[in-house]
Each structure stands twice: as structure tokens, then as C-alpha cells.
Amino acid sequence: MAGSNGTLDPVWDDMDRTAYEAGHPVPLLIGLDQENGGVNSLFDEIYIRQYPSAMGLAATGSKDIAYEVAKATAEEIAACGLNLMMGPCLDVLTNARNQPLGVRTTGDDPQEVSAFGIAFMKGYKEAGVSTMGKHFPSYGSLEFLGSALDVPTITESLESLSLNALVPFRNAIREGLDSIMVGGCAMSSAGLNVMHACLSEQVVNDLLRNDLHFDGVVISDCLEMEALSHNIGVGGGTVMAINAGCDIVLLCRSFQHQQEAISGFKLGLENAMITKERIKQSLHRVLNMKAKCTSWERALNPPGVSLLSNLQPSHTTLSTKAYNSSITVVRDKNRLLPLTNIMEPEDELLLLTPLVKPLVASAAARALSEQASNGSPEPAVWDRSASVMSGERVFRELGRSLARQRSGRVLHTSYTANGVRPQHENLINRASAIIIVTADANRNLYQHGFTKHVSMICNMQYTSSGEKREKPLVVVAVSSPYDFAMDQSIGTYICTYDFTETALMSLVKVLYGDFTAAGALPGSISQSQKLSQSKQHWLVESFNEERDANGLDVLIKAVVDGNTPGLHSELASATSNSFLLHNPDILESHYVVRNSSTQALYGFCATYFFKTTGTGVMSAIFVDPSRRKLSIGHSLHNRAIRTLMQREGVKRFQLGSRLPSIYLGIPTGHGGERKRLRSWFAALGWNTALSRAVCSMVARNLSTWTPPDGMAKSLQSAGVDFDLVYGWDYAGPVLDHIKTNHRQGLAEVYKMALADASACGIIRAKRPEDGSLVGTVVLYNMSSQLAEFVPSMKDIGELAGGISSPVISPSVGEYSTLLQGLILLGMRQIKQQGCNVCVLDYMDGDGNFDGLSAMGFNVLHNFEEVSCDAATWTMVPS
Questions:
Q1: How confident is the model over 79-83, as a mean pLDDT?
Q2: What is the spatial distance between Cα 234 and Cα 251, in angstroms, rounded to a whole number?
């Protein structure tokens, strides 16, 4: 097992035994970066497997594969005696073209980063190691403003960070993240001016501890970074980090700096700059984390090679599966793949690769590189592990792998910043097809220029008879997928997300057709590749109820019938009436594309403008399944947006509507369909990264239902009184109360319920002392007007009652208790009315459902509600 000293035994075995013999009460906390891809501090070609980078795993689209890889990685490091995984990376890549993270993060969609981050975290925990989310508040949007002595800076506002970069951290904390590394970056925006985040009480204590409610271990970024050590000094930085709230101060490299930090710490204690109470807080947190991940028995007796030998076969299979699932063919316009379809056996294939350094984030690679640069002979271990093999060596092996798979010759040469040389031109003319490899071409601009030059040469090839004939060119990005993701002139473009030997073996199989690549670009990289410009502009007309109602019913049935078998449609019990509110407080405009000769509808789009909130809503858009991909949806969408933009007082646009409650947003329970829909809306201008999960829920079998044990007693201790009221006489206090919540459609739902006293009621929660309202919820039955706009009520097929639109006062501390109380009383009332089913038609979808699940509820439909500022909307041509 190659440790950091290059020997076969890890040095931390001796460290733990030394600590034990010295009388330490608990083992050491020993962690490392083992992020996979190019970031592996632990390496061994026999016992330690190589897995895709974080972005490579996101490209598989599988949280299950991500979990299994994380678990396998953690099992390997745990077998070697380590107990802290310095991961996952929870950074959201909002500034992809100018930052150091690259493929170490899963992408630029906060929800996707969050989902994969939690999958990684759960895998690590399953293997018994502690987890560390990094790099708080996010390295994904850094601006580099000068030299190495200038700290990279986050310029986003706290509000912007909260909507984007902090989402994965917030969700991971909720799921039990053990520790968080706070970065050493600066923060500069309105009301926030921080030189180093990990030294700032405003970041660590206020934002992370108080706002995000994190009570785990906070770890500082390495204080040896040039910007920090030169500007403040390691000793002073140590004191500042501890007082800011850090529990562990990180110093990675220099023994001198470590001594300086200890001296600074001692001086801080002696001068009462650091209190003993502050130290006890951190000690308590660190001991709690150690108790979960280590013991003397585990620390002194790591299973080592014996366990790794047993794990090797299954982990090797998993590695191959993960890499094969990650390789992404972004474009193949001219159907060049597999190469066997376009090349004769005797044809020559040209491979052009850049001169790159070893995979830069590997500690071992860095050490070996330094040895080589100091004149040391290249050690044998350099050949033994793909994890630390130089880029040139890895690419040479790629050439050999390509050659082994075919009878024709593979020509291989490298390229540099010197550009296309005569030898390159000769080889290009000679070869029948060309593969160019790029590695972070956005930061190594010579690679971009070289590739574009070769592409131009390939486009200008002619046959002996003078006929123009484009020479086949395949571009492979082996690190960041951003290299040519947006460049449509590169007709065949493949991404591997790292350039380890294992990744490139999977690439060779894709190039030769051993399997079809199934990976997909993560986040909004693929979303931002605009759909091809439409050549058809359909005539869009305003919906006419008398003329089009019957046609809409037929269209709805066609959409439901055309749904993927086994998937339930949100439109299942909807009719044309489900979209027609006829509410004086709501301006509704609906649009159709139709055949004027047959009166058949090909597509429909429903929009509403809620005057009370200034929200323009697109609540549904659907097209006849037999006429999709003809730009009907584009034409409907753009007409609808133009109308909403012209509404006086419009403040924001929203995908998904509470009223009517058919589509609460983009449906997300449909597997691959979810990704297609998100991409489609993103291409039309919606920022799907800023979405809000919502859902409808259902509880069945009310006839035998009873409340969970203890829930009634907990409600009694909540300190509120509940009642059920009907009719407009109670409108004043209720409508005043719901003004504390600015969600779209709330006021309209409550007004409809208050005006329909025979079929709707309001359950209220009041403070006993003054009668003020702290919570409300709408109760309705199947004969109510409100039920007409909730198709799932009819779709149940049984007598059902509905609960809608809970509003809890922001001043209430026990939000979940009060919410459960309102819903519990609603369920009782619905059961008393003889109903066997209860529908919750609009709930936050990313909340903790344990309480509602205990009450008997299951999710019926999942959605992503997407909102954006109307003032910043940019029309995308159809």
C-alpha cells in the first residue's frame, strides 16, 4: 500500500500506535482527499481501485452508482486505517470557466449537486468513515483578481448564495453531514466584506452555525496558503480561525508552519484571546465525531490487504461499470461512431494529444513531480499507478490500446503551444480519421486553438478528383467537459471527465463500438445548448371556450394515452374546465395551435396573472404526442411569455400553479422525462437551477386510520387553540394572516374557500392569550368549486376530501408541530364526513416528510416549481 512516504505500509499505522502508547484517550482523526478521478491521495495499482471523478459520476445520471462508488472508496481507505473522508465536494459550479475545481464537483445545478453530494455522503457513512463537505460557502463562483497573494473572491450576495451555492450544504446538513471545511476565500458584496471565510465569525458562526443550524465539526482551509500566510501569518490565522468557530485548523505541508500554529495557539490561550470554554466546545464536537468513526480496536487493527483482496473483484467490476456509464457522446452529427463504420481495416488513425502534467490534485503525483523536477530519477512507482502516471504516459497507453483493437496503424504524436507544425499537417493528410484529445482547453488556450486549426484543415480536404470531402474528426475532452460543449462546429465530441487509464479504456470501447455511451452532460451544460433553431413558426391563437373546449378534452386524452406505460399522468382526470378559473382577481389567457379545417388542437398552453402578487404563471403546456418535435411547444411558449411580459405590475414568472393544481411545476417523477423537460425549459430561458420542490400527497384507508401515538398529546402542548370556521364572516383575520406568505395563488384559494361555505372550511390555529392567528389550512370536499381545479381529487376513484395551502406564521417556532396539527384535524374532519381518502394538494417537496409519513401520507406527484424575475427575462427566439 503506497502511503504518503512511498512505502508499502501507511505511516498513520505508526501514528495511531504512538498516540496509544502516549496515553491518548481516543484514536487520531486521520483523513485524506480520495475524490477519485484525478484526486487520489491514496494509490496502489493492485489494491486501490480507480473510479470516475464527481462530475463523471454525475454524468452517469445514477445516484445508485454514485452511492456504490462512494461506499467502495470509503471501504478501501477504512481498510487502510483512515476514518475521515475529506469529501464530498458540495460546490456549485457557477463560474465554470475561471475556477480551480473542474470535474471535482458534480456541476452547476444546485439540486443535482445536492442529490449526488448526499449520495456520496451516505456511501461514505455506510462504510464507517466520517464525512466532510467542502468548500463552504462555495469555490464554484470564485473570481481571481490578481497574483497568488490576492485571495480568490466570492462576489455573490448572501441572497444569491442562499438560492444557489448553499443549497447542497443546507441539504447535506439536514441529512447528517459530520463536518464542513470552510474555504480560505474572500467574500465581497453588499453588506459582506470578509478577507478569509474560514477566519470570519460572520461566515462560520453566523452563517454556518446560526443560519444553517450546523453543529458538527468545522474545519478550516489550509492556513499555509500564500495569500493567508503572507497577509496575516499562520500563528495569528490560527487564533482567528478558532475564534471564528473552527474546531480543527488545517496545516498540510510544512512542519515549520505547524509549529508556528501551535505557538500561536498557546499564545492565544495565555493572553486570554481564546477561552477554555471555546476549546471545550470544539473538543466536544470532535470527540462526538470520533466516537462515530473510530475506536482503538479499529485504529490499531485495520484489516488492510486481506480485506482489500476480498473487495478487489467487486470493486473492479464497479469501477468498469461506473466508467462505462459516464462516457458521454455530446454530439455525433455525421455519425462517425463507432470508427469501425467509417474506416477500412488498413486505414491509418491519427491520435493527437497535449503535453500535460500528472493529474494535478494527486498528492502523490505532486510529490513525484517535485522529485523529477529536482533531478531525481523517476521512481518505479511512477509506472505502477495510473493515478499518478504523467499525462504523456497515459496518452501513450491510450495510443497502444487503440492500436491493439484494429489491424490498421495508429499514428500518435503530441502537440504543444507551438501550434500545428508541418509534421502535424503531414500526418493529418496521411490519416483517414483523426482523434484530438484536449484537457481543460478553457485554461490551456493553445489546445483550443490547435483543435480549431485541425478542424479547419479537416473541413478543407479534397479528393483526387477535386471534390470536397470532410475528413472525420473526433474531439475528446478528458477533463472539463466545457472545452467544446457549446461549439457546434466540432461535430463529434466526447467527454471522459478524467484521463486515468481506466477512463481511457472505456473511451476506446466507445470509439470501437464495444458499447454505446450512455453518459449525459451534468447540470445546465446540456441545458444551455440551445435547441436547434425552429424552421416552423406555428400560428398561435387565443383559446376560445365555445370553439375549443371539446378539442381540448380530446387533446388531454391523447396526452394521457400517450404517456409512458406504467407512469401516471397528472392530466388523468383533467378536463377543459380544469383550466378555466373565471376569477375576477386572476387574468387568464390560454393559447392553442389548431387545425382550422378539422378544429383539432395540436397544442395548448395555460397562463394566469395573479394581481395580488404580480406573478405571471404558465401552469400547463402540452402537445399532441404524435406531433412533438415540430416546434409547436416553442411557438406556444413564446406567445404566452410575450403576453405575460405585457401585464401591468408583473414582477416574476413562474412555471407551475397552485390554482389550478394540475401541474405544480415541472413533473419530476418520470425518470428520464424529467431531465428532458428541464433541458427544454432551460433552453427557452428558465433558470431551472433555481427551482423549488413541491408535491401533492395522499393518505388512503381513512376508515381504519388512527392518529400516530403521542401526536394528540404533542398538539396539546403546542400552546395553541384550533377551530374550524365556514363562510365570509371570518375572512378579515384569515386574509390578514395569509399575507405573511407571498406564494402565488394563496389569496385566491382562501377567497374561493371562504365563499363556498357549504363545501369548504378553514381550520385555524390561534394563540390562547389574544386570539391571533398563527396557522391556517383550507379544507374542502369533492363537491366544492376548489375540487374542480384539483384533478387528483377525482382521479382517486373514491370519496375523497382535500387539504390545501397551509400557512404558518413566521413567528412560530414549532413549524412542523403546528403543520401536523392542522393536517391531523383536517384528516379527522374528512374521515367524519365518510371519506376514505385525503389529498394534500400542495406541499413543500424538499421538507422532512417523516411526520406526514407517520400520519399515513405518501407522495402522489412530484414537481419542480421554477420562478424568475420578470425584469431580467430574455426572450429566446422560437
A1: 93
A2: 9
Query: Could you report the per-residue pLDDT of 798-816, keeping only the tens digit for each?
Result: 899 999 999 988 777 777 8
Pairing state between β 433-438 and 473-477: parallel
Query: Is 780 in contact with 760 (CB distance < 8 Å)?
Result: yes
Distance CA 799, CA 307 (A): 58
Q: Is 313 within the bounds of a domain?
A: no
Give the pLDDT band of residue 683 (cuts 50, 70, 90): confident
Q: How many CB atoms lie within 10 A of CB 711?
A: 16
φ/ψ of residue 185, rounded to 5: -85, 165
Among 139-148, 297-306, 583-592, whose mean pLDDT is lowest?
139-148
Q: Are 451 and 484 in contact (CB under 8 A)?
A: yes
| Burial of 561: CB neighbours in 10 Å, binned 0-12, 13-18, 19+ | exposed
CA 27 remoteness from chain centre = 35
pLDDT digits (tens, 9 = 90+) for 408-466: 899 999 999 899 999 999 999 999 999 999 998 888 889 999 999 999 999 887 666 66
Cell 523536477: give the residue: 373
Q: How many domains does the chain have?
A: 4
Q: What is the pLDDT of residue 145?
A: 57
| Coil/strand/helix, residue 252 | coil
Per-residue confidence band for 497, with pLDDT thresholds at 50, 70 and 90: very high
pLDDT tens track for 12-41: 668 889 999 999 999 999 999 999 988 888
The residue among 690, 709, 728 that closes a domain is 690
For the domain that residue 94 is a member of, what is the CATH number? 3.20.20.300
Q: Which residues contact 264 (CB under 8 A, 6 or more apart)?
A: 233, 234, 235, 236, 237, 238, 239
Average pLDDT, the chain: 85
* Cα distance between residue 70 and residue 117, in whole Å: 10
Question: What is the CB neighbour count within 10 angstroms for residue 618?
Answer: 23
* CATH number, domain containing residue 605: 3.40.630.30
* DSSP string across 361-399: T-HHHHHHHHHHHTTPPPPTHHHH-TTT--HHHHHHHHH
Helix H or strand E encompassing 862:
strand 857-869
Burial level of 213, CB count in 10 A (0-12/13-18/19+)?
Answer: exposed
Same domain, 549 and 665: yes
DSSP states of 120-149 as a string? HHHHHHHTT-EEEEEEET-STTEE--SSTT
Q: How far is residue 695's CA from residue 865's CA, in Å, rounded to a whole number? A: 10
How many CB atoms sit inside 10 A of residue 559's CB?
Answer: 19
pLDDT of residue 465: 61
493 has pLDDT over 60: yes
Between 537 and 755, residue with greater pLDDT? 755
- Per-residue three-class SS string for 391-405: HHHHHHHHHHHHHHC
How far apart (Å, rounded) are the C-alpha atoms in residues 126 and 119? 11
The whole domain housing 609 covers 541-690
> Judging by DSSP bridges, how do beta strands 153-154 and 186-189 pair with one another?
parallel
| Domain limit, last residue, from 503, 527, 551 | 527
Rounded distance between C-alpha atoms, residue 239 and residue 726, angstroms: 62
